What we know:
With 135 residues, the chain is an alpha+beta fold. The protein contains 5 helices and 4 strands. It has helices at residues 3-23, 29-34, 55-74, 101-108, 112-115; strands at residues 38-47, 78-83, 90-96, 119-128. It has a 4-stranded antiparallel β-sheet with strand order 2-3-1-4, with helices on both faces. Strand 2 (78-83) and strand 3 (90-96) form a beta hairpin.
Amino acid sequence: MNPFIILASCFLAIGFSSIGQNKLKSTNDKTASENRVKQFWFVLLTKGNNRTQDSVTAAKIQEGHMANITRLYNDGKIKVAGPFGDDGNWRGIFIFDAATKEEVDTLLTTDPATSSGRLSYEIHPWWTSPVGSFK
Length: 135
């Protein structure tokens, strides 16, 4: 089975599980608004086609990548970011809070790792209840 489908299914199961748990809470206005499912954007980061940089350049790209993540988090655009723990083709994920796929694509071009070709990405719509980190 496609590993991406398995990963996406896990995220959906977690998201819908939290929705079910929220429905058990009292039905005040805050809880009612938390029960609404909202669209976010799941980004799968993969190894890019240009990974030939020397170690100094690669370190500068990584430093810029981390600074960009911090900026986007502080701007409320990234809700989740992190690398995978192995050295496979999949490098990490982002979950964006943005109006459109085009906005996410534009935000990704501000990342030195994607603009240099060191990382590539796939963008997919993803839904969950806007609670916890997703508020």
